[in-house]
Amino acid sequence: MEEEMLTGGNSTIVVRVGHTVRRTVGPWTLAVHQLLVRLRAEGITEVPEPRGVDEDGREVLSYSVGVVPGYPLPEWVWAETILLAAGQLLRRIHDASTALVGEDLVWQLPTHHPVEVICHNDFAPYNLVFRNGRLRGVIDFDTASPGPRIWDLAYLAYRLVPLTDSAEDGGPPAPDRAGRLQLLIDSYEMPYEPAELLAVVAARLDELAVFTDARAAETGRDDFAEHAAMYRRDRDRVLATG
Questions:
Q1: Where are the domains of the chain?
Q2: Who contacts 130 (Cβ-Cβ below 8 Å, separation ≥6)?
Q3: Which of 93, 110, 149, 228 could pair with 212 in a Cys bridge, judged by C-beta atoms 3.0 to 4.6 Å apart?
């Protein structure tokens, strides 16, 4: 069948073949597939279904039908209903992932403590699938790893409250950041304080900047270096806010 290159990935080549997605396997692929199987067994059909490996040695996943928004994000992404739905879906994924905590599995990214769940580690609009303006799925679990719940929630807050420079992201020009942050916390239904979440956002961005600087050095890509600088600017803004 004809292969269609999918856009949006920064690290690996991803192609669509019919109703499936194919991508290069890594030492972590088995763990990711076990996570996806577990999530779907718990009724979370919003995640891709793993379908093994093809004749070229690539992993095979079901294709998630819908729109994955790119930057600058469209205006409809900022609806409060989407913010609520994203927090609720993340909570369901986390709850269902706890069965794999403590398992001897290889993950691509390091573990963060305290370990409570298996984090997606990139739960953001560019990995969310929408149909008719409603959240219908989440993709790209390749960087999943064990960690605390708040680690994932903090990154979602960064991208969807947003706590970025909203002008760059196409977000609302003057979002009610405090109100949207509290709404996200409420949707996840854990008693986090906003200041607690903001502190983790800053730590998350600090680590992400170091990681992205390393990727820039490895690849020579200027866009990675620019992203690292952006993460540090956003970290400083979050710390000033908190």
A1: 3-62, 75-241
A2: 66, 67, 68, 69, 77, 82, 136
A3: 228
